[in-house]
Every structure is written in structure tokens, then in C-alpha cells.
Inverse folding.
């Protein structure tokens, strides 16, 4: 009696995971996302494990979620997955103020970001 099932947006050989409201600017998050684009998931996980960036821990969690979605929800082979897309978008921005000299005010922008990771199953070429 409920709603009709929504059609799948991605092809059958892809799975995705999203992370919303990550407390980092989109520019800094994109540096970590560009580190894993186009790589096999095993290499991407290794890169994120040994990355010195603070946000790499959350990106790794999102990548592991995309891998789990591919394995459990779409029955894709984990060993043949690559990171086909990893893109970043802005989320909300908290605006705060701090006092400056001579009665003025300085604006502080606390930025948040959204991350989307898409993994794709590729056929092993001989």
C-alpha cells in the first residue's frame, strides 16, 4: 500500500555513499578526494589510512560504506571495484564574529561540506 519503489539512478555495476555535514571546507576535502579518484579501492583505502590529513578518517569511513553498499546491496565483487567518482560540494556555513581593533568586527566562516563517493565494478582484462 506504500509508495512505488523509486528507479535506480546509477547503473547496475555502481554503488555510492554520501557523507553530509563534514566539518571541513570543500577546498580541503577536495584535496583528499582527489587522492583516491580513479584508484582501486584497496589502494585508495591504503592511501587514506596513511594520509596525514585529519579529514581522511571520515573519507575512509565513507569509502568503506560505499564498498559495503556495493557488496551487500548490489552483489558486486569487492576485488574488482574502483573509485569512479569522488566529488565534494558545500553545505551550510556558520557565520561567527570576533572583535577587532577600534570597535570593528571580524567575520569567521565555519564551513561544512558534503562528500559523495561512487564505486564501479570493472571487468578484469586479460
Amino acid at each position: 500500500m506504500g509508495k512505488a519503489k523509486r528507479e535506480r539512478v546509477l547503473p547496475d555495476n555502481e554503488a555510492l555513499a554520501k557523507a553530509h555535514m563534514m566539518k571541513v571546507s570543500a577546498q580541503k576535502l577536495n584535496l583528499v578526494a582527489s587522492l583516491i579518484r580513479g584508484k582501486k579501492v584497496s589502494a585508495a583505502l591504503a592511501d587514506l589510512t596513511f594520509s596525514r590529513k585529519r579529514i581522511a578518517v571520515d573519507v575512509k569511513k565513507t569509502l568503506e560504506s560505499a564498498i559495503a553498499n556495493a557488496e551487500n546491496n548490489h552483489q558486486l565483487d569487492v576485488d574488482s571495484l574502483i573509485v569512479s567518482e569522488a566529488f565534494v560540494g558545500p553545505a551550510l556555513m556558520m557565520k561567527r564574529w570576533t572583535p577587532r581593533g577600534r570597535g570593528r568586527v571580524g567575520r569567521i566562516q565555519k564551513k561544512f561540506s558534503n562528500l559523495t563517493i561512487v564505486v564501479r565494478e570493472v571487468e578484469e582484462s586479460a
